[in-house]
Structure formats: C-alpha cells, structure tokens
Amino acid sequence: MHALNPLDLFDINAELSDEEQMIRDSVARFVDEKALPLIADCFDEGRFPAELVPEIADLGLLGSSLEGYGCAGLNAVSYGLICQELERGDSGLRSFVSVQSSLCMYPIHAFGSDEQKERWLPEMAAGRAIGCFGLTEPHGGSDPGNMKTHARRDGDDWILNGAKMWITNGSIADLAIVWARTEQGIQGFIVEKDFKGFEARDIRSKMSLRASVTSELYFDNVRVPDANRLPKVTGLKGPLSCLSQARYGITWGPIGAAVACLKEALDYTADRELFKRPLAANQAVQVRLADHARRITLAQLMSLRLGRLKDAGRVHPTQISMAKWNNVRMAIDIARDCRDLLGGSGITLEYVAIRHALNLESVITYEGTETVHQLVVGRELTGHNAF
Q: Which of 7, 92, 155, 259 could disulfide-link 211, Cβ–Cβ 3.0 to 4.6 Å?
C-alpha cells in the first residue's frame, strides 16, 4: 500500500493531461516564489500587489482561455487550475485575473468589433491595459435587471449616466466594460478611463479582499463613441454570459484556498504538543481534518467534471451555480475551522487561515450569493422561479 497525498486523496492529478499539470505547476511556483512572500503584508496594508502583474501576464494567465490576440488558448480545465493556484495564494490575485480574463477580455472577444479586439485584447493579454466590469449597482445587488445606469444616443455617441458598485480593479483600470439600459435594451460599452465625467473611487475600510482594488464607478454625462459599444449582444444575456465564465473559475479558486488552509492545519497540529502529545493524535482533531479532506476531494471532482463538460461544449449554467455554491461553502467552512485549530495563532497574518476566511466572505457573496445559486438549482429541479 502506497501513501496517499493528503491534499489529493483520490489522485485527481492522474486525470490531468501533461499540459494541464505543467500549467498548474508553473502557476504554483509563481505563487510560492513571488506571491506568498508578500501577500500577507499586502493584505495587512490594504494594497494590491501591482508589481506581480507583468509576471502574471508573462505566464500567459490573462485571457488564457481565449484564442488569438496574444492569448494562450488554453482549455477550461487549465484555466480552472490557474484559478485554483492563484487563490491558494490569495483571492485577490484570482479576482484580478478573473475580472481581466472572464469579465473584460471575454466580452470584447465574444461581442466586440474587430477594431475593438485588435485595439484592446493584445494590450490586456500583456498586462499593459487593465479592465474592470461594471454591472452591480448600489441598489441592485443580486437583481441586475433592476439596472438604473442608462445611455441615450446622441448622434455618433452615447451619453452615459449612472453608478456601479463593488468593482474589482476599478481605480487601476484603463477601461471599464459598463452595462447600461438603452432604448434598444441593455448594451455594453467600453468606457475609457480618461473620458470626461467618468470617475472611479476606491472603497476603503474593507475587512475582506484587502489585497485587491474595489471601487465605485460614477458616470456623469459621459460621452462614449458608438465605436466603443459592443455591437454583437443586446440584453442581459451579455453580462450574464460573462458572469458564467467568471463563476466557472470561481468554482476552482476556493479549492486552492481550502488546500492552503488544510496543509497549514496539518503542519500545525503535527508540531503543536498539548498534554504530552501532538494535536494531530487527538480523535477530535483527526475527525475535523478528515472532513476537510473529504469536502476538498468532492469539490475537486466536481470542478474537474465541470471543466470537462465545458471543454466539450456541454456545460449548463445551473451546473456552474451548483459548483460555485458547493465549493465556496466548502472553502469558507474549512478556512474558519482551520483558524480555530490554530488557536490564538490563527488570528494573525503569520498564518493563512484568517486571511482566506476573510477573503472568502467576499467570494461567497460576489458573482451571485449562495442563496442566488441555491435558487438557480431549485428552479432547475422544480420548474418554478422563486426569485
């Protein structure tokens, strides 16, 4: 009998191709060597580690699942593994890449004109242009159909007014993908940072995602050329399709956070001695650690299957909702329990559990709250819309 990998009890690694393993391992090295040495200080200081962006771009992690325009063209499982390893470092790193790739580059690639693709995608893939995604509004939250931001046609331009809230990358972005009501329906616009009347203000005093930029966006009679309108989509299906791309990555990311917490707890309980024996020798501790491993394994299997379905063109949004609900709940529960296993040490940034637990409070809320995803699954099961 050979020993099992405590962080991969079902040898899911063997289900990955050589290329997928190589991509995961290269991102893992980046996280270990470049991100982890500074991320706790960034969290403490409330600072996004912008110095890591060039290497993130050099690794091909921005728009990695897109074809052409300097993008890597990787499969969905590879993108998921990228998200997993980045969030093993910090949710803020994965959020940055998710927003850039799934919420900004994807809609330009899917719904943009050839001119928009040529102008923005190579720059964004190289990390020379940063994007943000403007959908959520101060009053709207989980109800994007109640959008107040609006745009009216004025000759060859559009006049944009409104506000967006909880916007990752907002104040460091060179462009914002903004969704607004028009007479023709909801449409997407590429709003450039220097457009008159456009302002991004950072949200301060956060206790979560502190190593990430979160902003409010304001539009006061912003004149947007029609050439900056995404021409190939109208209606909520545009932004919702972007959210499905991002939510897929989120099903993988929290697995990385949970793995980081479990590894730390395994090491700590093996070394920490109380009552003349290591904590790991206690039945209560072993039951908790075993439950963590069980739940991580189920999440790993779910996301891998989801990725294979996505690569086969057979994924359904409800499947993404179930995986987002399951995997983020798994991770936040494990992070909180690992924090407890660390005792008093668990409240310091010398250990990762408290940072992951706090970050996951945001992850379980954004891209659809846990309740929203439960209701999506419930609607699929019953045929009744309870929203």
A: 92
Q: How far is CA 82 from CA 4, 88, 185, 331, in A?
A: 24, 10, 35, 17
* The dihedral formed by the CA atoms of 376, 380, 381 and 382, expressed in degrees to the nearest 10: 90
Q: Which domains does the chain have, with CATH numbers?
A: 12-125 (1.10.540.10), 131-228 (2.40.110.10), 237-382 (1.20.140.10)
Sheet strand arrangement including 175-180: 131-134, 175-180, 187-192
Task: Order the strands of the 214-225 sheet from edge to edge.
Answer: 150-154, 157-168, 214-225, 198-202
pTM above 0.85, yes or no: yes
Q: Quick: pLDDT tens for 326-353.
A: 999 999 999 999 999 999 999 999 999 9
Q: Active-site residues: which are they?
A: 367
State the Cα–Cα distance between residues 357 and 298, nearest whole angstrom: 20
Q: What is the pLDDT of residues 28-81, one digit of tens each?
A: 999 999 999 999 999 999 999 999 999 999 999 999 999 999 999 999 999 999
Q: Is 149 exposed, middle or buried (0-12, 13-18, 19+ CB in 10 A)?
A: buried
Residue found under tokens 């020379």: 128
Residue reference for tokens 């990311």: 253
> Rounded to an integer, what distance in angstroms lies between the CA atom of residue 90 and that of residue 40?
9
